[in-house]
């Protein structure tokens, strides 16, 4: 049994070099984002997938808390993208994108996400199949929610770069 804020460690490593986490509460999802923020660098791309209510925005809120960005992080569904500046001199900013309503690569290109990519971290909800070309490497994060509880499962899968090595630093 795990209390709030006390998520279990990862399940055994996946063959892809990825990690899977059981997250008993929404706070655990947030806390995973805080921990993941400690591994992030300028230019990193995170591609989040999962059904409505799976915890994508909660994870990004944790990223923002861990990075110390300014402003409230909410789902950018209707504005599509929000830029959150760092609250610390020289710190990382966060671009939070909701690609749910985007249907093509051309629409992604119209957002000019690559302009901020080199100086920030970009987290894209619903971006699978649309935004991977924004960076040479990215981290895919698949979130699932149990139908009968608040428990979520997060599967982190590295795609290129040194993501596999960085993920080993997560508990």
Question: How would you summarize the topology of this molecule?
Answer:
Layout: E1 19-23, H1 26-37, E2 45-49, H2 56-67, E3 81-84, E4 93-98, H3 105-110, H4 113-117, E5 120-125, E6 138-145, E7 152-159, H5 163-167
- Total E-strand runs: 7
SS class: alpha/beta
Helix content: 10-25%
Order of helices and strands: EHEHEEHHEEEH
Low-confidence stretches: 1-8
Strand sequence of the main sheet, in spatial order?
1-7-6-2-5-4-3
* Proportion of residues in extended strands: 15-25%
The count of helical stretches stands at 5
Morphology: globular
Oligomer state of the chains in this structure: single chain
Average predicted local confidence, pLDDT:
82
Q: Supply Rg.
A: 15 Å
N/C terminus separation: 18 Å
For the largest beta-sheet, the strand count, sense and barrel status come to:
7 strands, mixed
Structure explained in plain terms:
By secondary structure, the chain is an alpha/beta fold. It is built from five helices and seven strands. The protein has helices at 26-37, 56-67, 105-110, 113-117, 163-167, and strands spanning 19-23, 45-49, 81-84, 93-98, 120-125, 138-145, 152-159. The chain has a seven-stranded mixed beta sheet. It is globular. It starts with 18 loop residues before the first strand and ends with a helix. Mean pLDDT is 82; it is low at 1-8.
């Amino acid at each position: 049994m795990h209390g709030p804020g006390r998520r279990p460690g990862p399940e055994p490593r996946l063959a892809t070099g990825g990690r899977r986490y059981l997250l008993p509460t929404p706070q655990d999802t947030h806390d995973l984002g805080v921990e993941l923020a400690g591994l992030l660098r300028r230019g990193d791309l995170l591609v989040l997938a999962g059904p409505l209510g799976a915890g994508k925005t909660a994870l990004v809120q944790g990223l923002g808390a861990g990075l110390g960005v300014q402003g409230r992080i909410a789902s950018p569904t209707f504005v599509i993208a929000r830029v959150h500046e760092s609250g610390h001199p020289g710190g990382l900013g966060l671009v939070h994108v909701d690609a749910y309503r985007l249907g093509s690569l051309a629409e992604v290109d119209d957002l000019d996400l690559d302009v901020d990519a080199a100086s920030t971290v970009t987290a894209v909800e619903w971006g699978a199949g649309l935004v991977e070309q924004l960076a040479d490497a990215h981290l895919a994060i698949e979130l699932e929610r149990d139908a009968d509880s608040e428990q979520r499962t997060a599967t982190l899968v590295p795609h290129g770069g040194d993501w596999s090595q960085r993920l080993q630093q997560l508990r």
